[in-house]
């Protein structure tokens, strides 16, 4: 094949010889089933090392293309974009997605379980260039075969394929191979096909990524200023076309953004998401959790239950960083149906300045197997182990979690999911150490209904997982309608009612929430939600809520709330939420808002505030959060991000500033400043912790 100069201009002769994608692109929204308002032409080529995508996206108003940013994994819902989805194994289950906006920023993701699990943190090498003309914008994309996973069989092979496009000013999404509104382009069981790929290369597929870093940490919570230098290594090896081994040694995540602070107004644990790239990649393989499916009202989500939550590795319950010695992860496919994943990690002991042990060294092991059935259904099993090592304790502390799960897609519109799990440890927290869930969700063009039953024993304790509530039976049901109006600026009106009951293990009612709500989506991308919750809470003993001791008893109250979100495609956008009413033995009023200003693709500032005014347990107090994020992108390789938060509950000001230079594909230089400052004494604030870190990585691909 003739060489292609990747400049975003489709002027090479070889492009004119390539077949053009045929058929009319179809809208998914706002007018499902109707032709797209603007034409799109796509061509595909390949040589011995890359697959090339050339796209011309006709647009009658290229002066008003919206670009949400230049950073990797930009805000795709707020941007014009073009994307391609590859199911390179053609198994209708997993694949890779690449999307680009008119300024050339790249979003890439790995997807599992027929689109149910999307891992946006996955990163692959891809060379992309764009240009904007008078009546079109253009994309040239080169993706190395080493980035993709496929079977290098002799002769031709078939891949699953789909293209998608977003025209932001029209609030329009369109696809080459359209899928129903309730799904996304990741729904590979309904994608088109790419044929004609013959004798693809058998790449060695070995990536080696060393890193070096230096840091200095001081503050009043440090016995003395500490300077650290270290090196580490990550290795990715495609040991077979369908099996990948990842190795990490002396693992460091100092460049990862700090957690967003949260206010807890419940009596249950808060969920903090995983942000570390090593654990996020192939996360879908290890997903054993409550199911959340886009556009299906399932009543729960992975933020409520996960048998395995990788955040429990290398981070304490109070979010302290624990040193990771290293680990390995093996993921891939065995045969046509079976997906497997194995993870092994070892942490070091963390000692106090006086030499005593704060956290013991631990070994973490995870095994996962899943059988994929027809139509996107699957059944699987998981085993998770957490074991103290090197403590000399006899017997050493341990925790085991295990279970089987399944998800079944029936009649296109019906999804059934279920799991049964158990735990064991040296000292059990309760008598019942099992959990089980059964859920059914139906979504048609107009109707959305679902039901869920879940039981979590009082002694169920996955040591490397997350459970928000134990010792309960839960019953949830919802029914709603979402007709498309497409008139007077209204796209969809969605009245719905949720009924949620929790009883204790003896069957006594513990919590009840009945919530009628009305959701309205507007043609410009904005939305409005009006809720009215009828709540019941029974406390069997004095319980801490928002840091206050609330007496045992039965509490009933009403809780109206309102939320409006402005179109994210505007230079100035945001949202506001209001709620209030009685709250246990007092009252609560909550107001929160977010304001985002993005005048161009280079700069944005995002301000957020949450004010909670409470009268609880005979005391009036407030619980407020304030944050500001500033992002500047010089181009698609150079970024500065600042994140400042104030948490009134802890009276702390947390600052995180990060400079990132992508000096080569998947190779970075980071300069990170973090500070945690106590404002408990007003003007006489004190620095609790302050650190600065320099880190460099370099990807070597073979």
- Integer-rounded radius of gyration: 26 Å
Biggest sheet, open or closed, and with what strands and sense?
Answer: 24 strands, antiparallel, barrel
CATH architecture of the domain at 13-198: Sandwich
- Give the overall silhouette: globular
CATH class of the domain at 13-198: Mainly Beta
Mean pLDDT, as a whole number? 89
CATH topological fold name of the domain at 13-198: Immunoglobulin-like
Structural class by secondary-structure content: mainly beta
- As a percent range, the share of strand residues is over 45%
Quaternary state of this entry equals single chain
Work out the helicity level: under 10%
- Count of separate DSSP helical elements: 2
**Parts with pLDDT < 50 across at least 5 consecutive residues:** none
What is the β-strand count? 45
N-to-C CA distance: 23 Å
Description of the structure:
The strands form 6 sheets. The protein has a 24-stranded antiparallel beta barrel. With 702 residues, it is an all-beta fold. The protein contains 2 helices and 45 strands.
Brief account:
The chain is mainly β. The chain contains two helices and 45 strands.
Please name the defining characteristics of this protein.
702 residues; mainly beta; Immunoglobulin-like; 45 strands; 1% helix
Which helices and strands occur, and which strands form pairs?
Blueprint: H1 13-17, E1 26-29, E2 40-46, E3 50-58, E4 81-87, E5 95-100, E6 106-112, E7 117-119, E8 127-132, E9 136-144, E10 156-167, E11 172-175, E12 192-198, E13 206-218, E14 226-240, E15 243-249, H2 277-280, E16 305-306, E17 324-334, E18 338-347, E19 350-351, E20 357-359, E21 362-372, E22 378-388, E23 398-410, E24 414-425, E25 434-443, E26 447-456, E27 466-467, E28 472-481, E29 484-487, E30 490-504, E31 509-522, E32 527-539, E33 543-545, E34 548-550, E35 553-565, E36 572-583, E37 586-597, E38 603-616, E39 619-622, E40 625-633, E41 638-647, E42 652-664, E43 667-678, E44 686-697, E45 700-701
Antiparallel strand pairs: 1-11, 2-3, 3-9, 4-5, 4-10, 5-6, 6-7, 8-9, 10-11, 10-12, 13-14, 13-44, 13-45, 14-15, 15-17, 16-27, 17-18, 18-21, 19-20, 21-22, 22-23, 23-24, 24-25, 25-26, 26-28, 28-30, 29-30, 30-31, 31-32, 32-35, 33-34, 35-36, 36-37, 37-38, 38-39, 38-40, 40-41, 41-42, 42-43, 43-44
